[in-house]
UniProtKB/TrEMBL annotation, chains A, B:
Signal sequence, renumbered to the chain: none
HTH asnC-type domain sequence ranges: 3-66
Alphabetic keyword roster: DNA-binding, Transcription, Transcription regulation
GO MF, one example: sequence-specific DNA binding
Superkingdom to which the source organism belongs: Bacteria
InterPro entries xrefs: ArsR-like_HTH (IPR011991), AsnC-type_HTH_dom (IPR000485), Dimeric_a/b-barrel (IPR011008), Tscrpt_reg_AsnC-like (IPR019888), Tscrpt_reg_AsnC/Lrp_C (IPR019887), Tscrpt_reg_HTH_AsnC-type_CS (IPR019885), WH-like_DNA-bd_sf (IPR036388), WH_DNA-bd_sf (IPR036390)
Species in which this protein is naturally found: Winogradskyella thalassocola
Cited PROSITE patterns: HTH_ASNC_1, HTH_ASNC_2
GO biological processes: regulation of DNA-templated transcription; response to amino acid
The protein's name: Transcriptional regulator, AsnC family
Example of a GO cellular component annotation carried by this entry: cytosol
Lineage: Bacteria, Pseudomonadati, Bacteroidota, Flavobacteriia, Flavobacteriales
Length: 152, 152
DNA sequence: CATGAAATTTTCTCCAT
DNA sequence: ATGGAGAAAATTTCATG
């Protein structure tokens, strides 16, 4: 599917505030409400807009201890990789998990309440997963920037 | 502010799909539409729900080259840190930036179109920032998991 | 893509617990 | 204070040109 400059501007607005009314959007884009409505539907149908979510302030809910864990697997056979990835997907503490180049390695972003909870997560959950070779964790001191908005 | 089990369930639903109508939410929570409405307003007022956003599918817009850059500053004086953080905030390619423990170090998540664009980003933008000592980049092979939803 | 009408949803008021 | 029912206001959605 193709998207033009107006779609790009529309996506920018929606990525920043998806609760704006189509009327508000139409004013910013100099379009009619219907035109905005149809463009949004097109972006949703095509899958470019994949989800609408509410973002929760971590610190307001007392859950702002963030750790990054580098993980190496003992072996990298298809089986182990698939199994590891499936198990990681089920851990709610893991917000992000990336398979990285370099050392056939994973990077996990883990969110818990505090250091104690992190220790428990490591002992009770992460290291219970088979085939993990080594881990190396770093802790967040400060979140300098965090956006979900992609510039197009 | 306090939030109970119903608020927690409501946050779970909103973090997954913020476009549900209050009626749909009321059915899932066994509440009236008004009760849902008031709870949502309370969560917004208190800042627990800080933003509503549309999530864009990176691969659908041909922008799915993700790099993680570890950065060390030459010095760690207040001035340098503040300046570095301000500049990073203005780079649209940087989606996330964390100040980490350990080596007085930063971790950046960078999103660009492809390796060529990443090279340009490094040469033209990142290394143009003063006081950067060393950088180390890793590239994403696969996004195993990525959620914005916090479990409460 | 715009206009205008219909359907749905949000939002408010009032009342009960 | 908290939540429910229903009316009013606003918005989304659709038909037509």
């Amino acid at each position: 599917m193709t998207f033009d400059a107006i779609d790009r501007e529309l996506l920018k607005l929606l990525q920043n505030d998806s609760k704006q009314t189509n009327k508000a959007l139409s004013l910013q884009l100099n379009l009619s409400v219907t035109a905005v409505y149809e463009r949004i539907k097109k972006l949703e149908k095509s899958g470019i807009v994949k989800q609408y979510v509410a973002l929760v302030d971590k610190s307001k809910v007392k859950k702002d201890f963030v750790a990054f864990c580098h993980i190496k697997l003992v072996q990298h056979s298809q089986d182990y990789v698939v199994k590891f990835e499936r198990e990681v997907n089920q851990l709610h503490e893991v917000l992000e998990c990336y398979h990285l180049s370099g050392d056939y390695d994973y990077l996990l972003k883990v969110l818990v309440k505090d250091m104690k909870a992190f220790r428990e997560f490591m002992v009770e959950k992460l290291t219970k997963i088979d085939h993990i070779g080594s881990t190396h964790s770093m802790f967040m001191i400060n979140e300098v920037k965090h956006t979900t908005a992609i510039t197009l």
